[in-house]
Every structure is written in structure tokens, then in C-alpha cells.
Design goal:
With 355 residues, the chain is an alpha/beta fold. The protein has 2 domains: 123 residues, Aspartate Aminotransferase, domain 1; 167 residues, Aspartate Aminotransferase, domain 2, CATH 3.40.640.10. Helix content is 38%, strand content 12%. It has 13 helices and 10 strands.
């Protein structure tokens, strides 16, 4: 395989590259935004914190296409109902949301694909509903920075080299001082940090630490603070620099990708010219069927590219549209770590894949 695909492309976030760390302060717009945020250890913790702040007692509406581990935590605390929001479709199926006054609805910006106006138009038609936005796939997009939701949050470890970390912003409320500084490092964060360090030398050897971190995270049931380690790193990140590097890799992938057995969702919906580093996640591919998806997934793994399959173990009881989605998509973890040359080689490999 082309040497351009080395180093291996994995979902483990690395230790922060020196070129993107050690700054004196964040970019001004991000710094201003973060001043109004609480900092927690995880996205699920941020969501639980938001619901606790309003002493929520209504029905919580979440997408059916959603992390089963988080859904389990939420279901243990709240009356949870699901609605259809399929990432490969233009927008959520708003008619499937049976929310009423006093309920809360979770709007997820899946892979940076969603349009805020779709959600705000819907919210205006249902007064008295608490709107919570999840921006984990594009934490500092224009939408995220200019949110009109009651609450917005993002897991920062999905896009940036942090072993833990999330923000929560509540409209009209100042952040608690307790959640404005770092705390003790949780167990999952220590394992994630170990996975990142080992991944730099031997990605297969990092897998046990990665799986351990995910298992420990799934056992969390509260809103802990961001660790001191992640808090100090975050303050010196060149976030816009990382976003620009992500954009270059993403654009190179799309420019050299030819739809055949699959299509790339963001460029299909928004066009190549609208790919922007602060609003895209990573190339997310929709295949014609599960057989094709799994064949390409295995071939990529053989050359050291570890694509991410979402929530395939949801089992019985899910709707046909969600079953189809979890069976036919994956994301390639291209980000600030990877060059345009690597992205080009990867796009050509997938485009030319033969069955």
C-alpha cells in the first residue's frame, strides 16, 4: 500500500502536536464563548448537568440514532422517547417528535451536517420545550458559537487531542465557579491518555487502553469536572489552526473521491466549496449495503486505517431507517494529524476499491 497512508489513521486522539499547543490564549471568539461555559469531563456529563440545572421532570426526546450507552444512562433517570433523525437524510423527521410544553429535545448536529434554522423553525412551533444542542462533531462552528438553544454542549475529546473534556453553555445563566476550573483526572481519562501515548508507536497495542477508557466512561453516571490536565492543555490550543488542518485534509479527500459503492455525506449535501474546518467532522461515507461497507472497512483496517462504525450493537427494537443507517455508514478519522497527500491516497483507495 502507498506509504502516504502512514502513519496509521486511527480514532485515538494523539498527544498534542507542538505546532498546535502552547499558545498564550485561545482565539478571541472562542475565548469569549468559553467564558460563558462550564467545563466538564464528558459530553454525557454535560447533558446530565443541563437537565439537573432545570430540575427536569418531563419527557426527554432523543434521536433513535444515538449512543446506546448514553441512552441507557438517560433512561435510568428520565422518561425517554426517541425520534427519527437519520444523518444521511436532509434533516430530522420533525413529525416524529411528539414533544409538548415541559419536555426537552436533544438536537444533534450529526457530523456537522445539520442546519440550525431547521431546528429553530421547529422549536418556534412548540413553545415551552427545552431545546438542548449537541455540538460534539463541530464544537466551535458558527452555529455552536451563536446558539439560540436553552442549552448547548460538546464533547471536546472527539475533535481535539484531549483525554477528557466537554463544555456546557446555558442561555442566560453564568457558569458555576466549580465548573470553571480543572479537577481530578477520571479513570477513563487516564486510560485514554495511555492509549494516545502508545498509539504513537503501536496502534494495535493501544487498543486495550482505548476499550478500557470507553468501558470506564460508560460506567460514569454524573457530571464531573474537566481534569486539570485537559484544562491546562485546552487553554493553549490553536483551535483554529487544528480546524484549518482538518479542512485541508477533508478537502483533499473529497477532491479525489469518486462516488461509486458509497457517497460522502457532507460534500453531497453542501458541496465541496462549503467544506469549512470549523463546521465539518470527518469524511462520513454512506454505502449501498452492509456487505459493501464491511468489505471496505476490513480492507482499510488491513492497511492501518481504523474507520469508526456507529452503534451497530443496538439489537432488536430499532426502526428500519436506523437499522439501515447503522449498517451502511462509517467515518474515517481524518483530522489535523493528516496531510492532504494522505487524504488523497485514502480517497483513491476507496474510490478504486473492487468487489
Amino acid at each position: 500500500m502507498d506509504i502516504a497512508l502512514k502513519p496509521q489513521i486511527t480514532p485515538f486522539m494523539p498527544l498534542p502536536p507542538l505546532e498546535f499547543a502552547g499558545r498564550e490564549r485561545l482565539d478571541a471568539d472562542i475565548a469569549d464563548f468559553m467564558c460563558g461555559c462550564e467545563l466538564l469531563s464528558s459530553g454525557r456529563g454535560a447533558l446530565l448537568r443541563a437537565l439537573d440545572l432545570v430540575k427536569f421532570r418531563g419527557v426527554l426526546h432523543i434521536p433513535e440514532f444515538f449512543c446506546p450507552a448514553v441512552k441507557k444512562i438517560l433512561t435510568a433517570r428520565y422518561d425517554v422517547k426517541t425520534f427519527l433523525d437519520i444523518p444521511s437524510e436532509p434533516c430530522a423527521r420533525f413529525g416524529s417528535i411528539g414533544a409538548k410544553q415541559g419536555d426537552a429535545v436533544l438536537a444533534v448536529n450529526f457530523f456537522g451536517l445539520r442546519n440550525p434554522q431547521d431546528w429553530y423553525s421547529w422549536a418556534e412551533s412548540v413553545p415551552g420545550v427545552v431545546l438542548i444542542e449537541d455540538h460534539s462533531h463541530a464544537p466551535f462552528s458558527d452555529w455552536a458559537l451563536n446558539t439560540r438553544a436553552d442549552f448547548s454542549f460538546a464533547s471536546l475529546r472527539k475533535c481535539f487531542p484531549l483525554p477528557d473534556g466537554a463544555y456546557l453553555r446555558a442561555r442566560g445563566s453564568a457558569p458555576s465557579k466549580i465548573y470553571s476550573r480543572g479537577g481530578e483526572q477520571p479513570d477513563f481519562s487516564r486510560d485514554a491518555l495511555a492509549a494516545a501515548a502508545i498509539d504513537a508507536y503501536s496502534p494495535p497495542a493501544a487498543l486495550p487502553f482505548y476499550y478500557s477508557a470507553e468501558a470506564r466512561l460508560n460506567n460514569l453516571n454524573g457530571a464531573g469536572r474537566i481534569s486539570k490536565y485537559s484544562f491546562e492543555l485546552l487553554k493553549g490550543f490553536d483551535i483554529r489552526g487544528m480546524e484549518n488542518a482538518r479542512e485541508r485534509a477533508y478537502k483533499s479527500f473529497v477532491e479525489n473521491f469518486s462516488p461509486g459503492v458509497c457517497e460522502e455525506l457532507f460534500s453531497k449535501k453542501n458541496g465541496e466549496e462549503n467544506i469549512c474546518g470549523n463546521s465539518v467532522f470527518s469524511p462520513t461515507l454512506k454505502f449501498k449495503n452492509m456487505f459493501a461497507r464491511d468489505r471496505v472497512y476490513s480492507a482499510l483496517r488491513d492497511i492501518g486505517v481504523f474507520a469508526v462504525i456507529y452503534w451497530g450493537g443496538q439489537g432488536a427494537g430499532i426502526s428500519d431507517p436506523v437499522r439501515d443507517e447503522v449498517s451502511t455508514i462509517f467515518t474515517i478519522p481524518l483530522d489535523f494529524r493528516h496531510s492532504a497527500v494522505q487524504a488523497k491516497a485514502l480517497a483513491e483507495f476507496i474510490s478504486n476499491f473492487g468487489f
